[in-house]
Amino acid sequence: MEKVDMYTVYENWKRGLDRFRWQLISTPFASSKEFVEELDLSESIMKKSMSKIIPTSILELIKEQKENQVLLIDLKGEDNLDLALELNVNFGITPVLVFAHIFHKKAIVGSKELLIKLIKYSYDIKNIENKYALLLDYNRFSDKEFPKREYFNNQYRLTEEEMPYSEDLNQWGIDEVIIVSESPMKIDLKEYVEYLENNNIKVKVNLIN
To answer: What top-level branch of life does the organism fall under (predicted)?
Structure first.
């Protein structure tokens, strides 16, 4: 079985993040060691095309992204990793993963598929430093009840500390955030939108039903 160095995987995703390097959280990488040892990386994975993940109208917005804008995309983690690779390779957009879960065999958040994609795609990401997309995992928490004896509860909510501060965005010449999210929008993302708008950052919200 192929041996995986998760520190290398982490550095691969960190490469090219520049000002957004603090948004890449090390927890998923550091906590995956035991899980990784049992992975079969030769196992085939289903990779979705961008058109299967987001509507054409929103794809056009992404293609037209300007350097004074940053994308913030909140979709299922597995889909967002597929999207990360497509955005990087086809449109020169650097993906910034904002995943904060702890990997665990019985975890609610973070599937085997997600971990395999996290590893495999990391070797294909190009170092580009002009346009960025912050990618969240829509499955980070839910209202669904999980039996405590069967699942390890690693759900989480994002706070301003994990997201870019408005002062930093202004300093970097970014004055607009374009949000693409599954519907309904998560409460933590709504709070971040309110924070941005209260600090004079333009926000455009695009929901996918």
So the answer is: Bacteria
